[in-house]
Amino acid sequence: NALEHYRNLWNAENTELNPINIQEMIPGLELPEGEVCLCFTNSGFCRQKVIETQDNIFEMTRKFNIDETVSFKGGKLEQNKIKEDTLVVEDLGVFLVTNARLIYLSEKIEPQIIDWDQLESTEFDGATIITFKTKNEGDWVYKFPDEAADVLDIIINRCLKGIKAVLSQMETEAAEQKA
């Protein structure tokens, strides 16, 4: 429903982020003392890969009826190989936003954790992909459901802006104490 989606966007931008009791929804997940979950959604962990495909000439030409009186000369038809750089979903899991970090959990791979102070920025493709640019670990790419991606991007950027403001204030206070 479009109205509900725009309400969620407005709420993500303008209302207070209330903690969610995640232990009921993900049994066994224990957050450290003082850490609370602000939102979560299903997601896919993605990687850039080069995929090699073949130009399927045979599939295109086999539909034609060839008159048996026609003879062909020459060697075997070589199928062209096409290399394509594409984003591949490697794993499905749950993505959590807490007041201390971003967490990706799945059954296949180890938990992936990005602390807020390690996150430099995010890039949202306007549809379903969010790329997290970190200081030390490169880019992490996740695919989110259509209805959640833009809402999540707003929430993450609100948190990131708040964390950067707090870190900046702490650095200013530390510099003033040294002086």
Task: Write the SSE topology.
Blueprint: H1 2-14, E1 37-54, H2 57-61, E2 81-98, E3 101-105, E4 112-115, E5 119-124, E6 129-134, E7 139-143, H3 146-178
Antiparallel strand pairs: 1-2, 1-7, 2-3, 3-4, 5-6, 6-7
Mean pLDDT level:
82
Query: Order of SSEs, N→C?
Result: HEHEEEEEEH
Count the DSSP helices.
3
Q: Characterize the largest beta sheet: strand count, sense, and whether it forms a barrel.
A: 7 strands, antiparallel
The coarse overall form would be globular
Stretches where pLDDT is under 50 for at least 5 consecutive residues are none
Strand content: 25-35%
Helix content: 25-40%
Record field, number of beta strands: 7
Spatial arrangement of strands, main beta sheet:
4-3-2-1-7-6-5
Kindly report how far apart the N and C termini lie: 56 Å
Can you tell me about this structure?
The protein is of the alpha+beta class. The protein has three helices and seven strands, in the order H-E-H-E-E-E-E-E-E-H. The chain has a seven-stranded antiparallel β-sheet with strand order 4-3-2-1-7-6-5, with helices on one face. Helix 1 runs parallel beside helix 3 (146-178).
Fill in the keyword field for this structure.
179 residues; globular; seven-stranded antiparallel sheet; alpha+beta; 7 strands
Summary of the model, kept short:
This protein is of the alpha+beta class. The chain contains 3 helices and 7 strands.
